[in-house]
Amino acid sequence: MTKYSFMDDYSEGCHPAILERLAQTNLSQQTAYGDDDYSDEARELIQRRLGSHKSTIYFVGGGTQANIIVISSLLKSHEAVIAVGSGHIATHETGAIEATGHKIITVIKKDGKLTSADVEQALAENAHFPHMAKPRLVYISNATETGRIYTKAELAALSKTCRDNNLIFFLDGARLGAALASHINDVKLGDLAKLTDVFWIGGTKAGALIGEAIVINKPELAEDFRFHIKQRGALLAKGRLLGIQFQVLFGDALFFTASRSANGLAAKLSKAILKAGYELDSETETNQIFPILPNPLIEKLESDFKFYNWQAYDKDRTVLRLVTSWATDEAAVDRFIAQL
Predict the structure, then answer these.
(1) With contact defined as beta carbons under 8 Å apart, do 178 and 143 qualify?
(2) Which of 18, 48, 209, 221 is the most exposed place for a label (fewest CB within 10 A)?
(3) Given phi > 0 = left and psi -120 to 50 = alpha, else beta, which region is 211?
(4) Vertex 142, ends 102 and 307: CA angle to 5°?
């Protein structure tokens, strides 16, 4: 690219430590389909972080794949999902969940965060049975699509609401690394094993080449789960590719250090934007920044940088989305700030 990209946190390949490990292990013969030594060790490393050996861990290639497999395998055909309107499954997965036959009941929230009250309201508004799809699963993402994170108290409240109403609590962790590394975060990986029924750990946006780790915390939900992975085309013959990457990410806490680096540069960008006199559409809590900038300024910045024009703010200004990654060059951040 001739322009430096702040489009996303997966424009680069993978962290050099992962690439090195992939090369080192390349000629080692291993059992296929994720039953290799590297995947076994990766699962053990994650379980240590969880503090729970009751959780079952499965590796798949991507986030949309993880969401489809979890939701379609756990729900009956007449059951629905409750999610915020900006949730990834509702906006950026090409109707993948609906294509499996499951309705998404959306709740519009500015910060992208679902609350217990939202869930209770959705249940009340969708209770005309059997004429309405039955809410059965609550979907959230941490961090959200607006870069905000959930506190432990908020997750605990949602967890209680789900259990009181016999709902499955499912957390999309595409940017879980950024959430856990946030300067205001009070949630640990082990908390998610206790509070959610299923969540997944995003490797793709935390330094992996590809790969996400689905964590199922209720043994009954894990029954026959590998059949669903296979049926959805997600059981890789060379499953070692995924296992090796999570072995590296969790072997020396790279998952967390890489995410902290991304968050740190996002904070630097965010502070500079505010210092320059501009507003933010969403508070910067992770590695996504949402500045509100004049359209002429945006046109000038676009000559040297790539970023996402998120949405129009008014006739003269637009909300941008800038995203930093584990590999973001601080010199590029400084250039952006200087031009701003």
Answers:
(1) yes
(2) 48
(3) left
(4) 95
